[in-house]
Design a protein that fits this description.
Layout: E1 2-6, H1 13-24, E2 27-30, H2 31-41, H3 44-54, H4 61-72, E3 81-84, H5 90-102, E4 109-114, H6 117-130, H7 140-164, E5 167-171, H8 176-192
Parallel strand pairs: 1-3, 1-4, 2-3, 4-5
Helix pairs in contact: 2-3, 2-4, 4-5, 6-7
Length: 193
């Protein structure tokens, strides 16, 4: 099973990805983790990425697609994977589509966790109040900025996959277990189609 999880920061993608990994015996591929691993391993593409990052610039789509391409060829991806943090733009979605076509693979589903911005802000504030540990990005101002970037750059990716008929929208404002059940139902529909 090959999936993409979409949704704004704080929507619960990481929580749901962990459940999907366990249930379907697939791997979660975080683009940030893959990038760091490629740099650390000093692969050719990792060295290119390091050079760009050392200049304080964003890694290009071409470099990211190459890293993803190399990663999904690894044996632990044979049963499938969940992409986390990619694609973030329509250009990246196009590049991913071309990559998968080249490899004679296809996405099984794109699941979007729909959560209201106001609820996300409340979740962050509650998490900050209730847990003794506060992450650096667990504050309303940082989340507002991240949501602005998400709505400007990443939200249009939903429309891209909706037009292709692969998007499954799930109400991410329900409890963790209810969201998991909705995702399972959406994935069953995809497999039955």
């Amino acid at each position: 099973m090959r999936l993409i999880l979409l949704g704004p920061p704080g929507a619960g993608k990481g929580t749901q990805a962990k459940r999907l990994v366990e249930k379907h015996k697939i791997v979660q591929l975080s683009t940030g983790d893959m990038l760091r691993a490629a740099v650390k391993a000093e692969t050719p593409v990792g060295l290119k990425a390091k050079e760009v990052m050392d200049r304080g610039e964003l890694v290009s789509d071409d470099i990211m697609v190459t890293i993803i391409s190399e990663r999904i060829d690894q044996p632990d991806c044979a049963n499938g994977f969940i992409l986390d943090g990619f694609p973030r733009t329509i250009a990246q979605a196009d590049a991913l589509s071309s990559l998968l076509t080249e490899k004679k693979k296809r996405l099984d589903a794109v699941v979007e966790l729909e959560v209201d911005d106001k609820v996300l802000l409340e979740r962050i504030e509650t998490r900050a109040r209730e847990s003794g540990e506060v992450r650096a990005d667990d504050n309303a101002e940082t989340l507002r900025k991240r949501l602005e970037v998400y709505h400007a750059q990443t939200a249009p990716v939903s429309g891209y996959y909706r037009a292709k008929g692969t998007l499954k929208a799930v109400d991410g404002m329900k409890s963790i277990d209810e969201v998991a059940a909705l995702i399972d139902m959406a994935l069953r529909e995809t497999q039955d189609a």
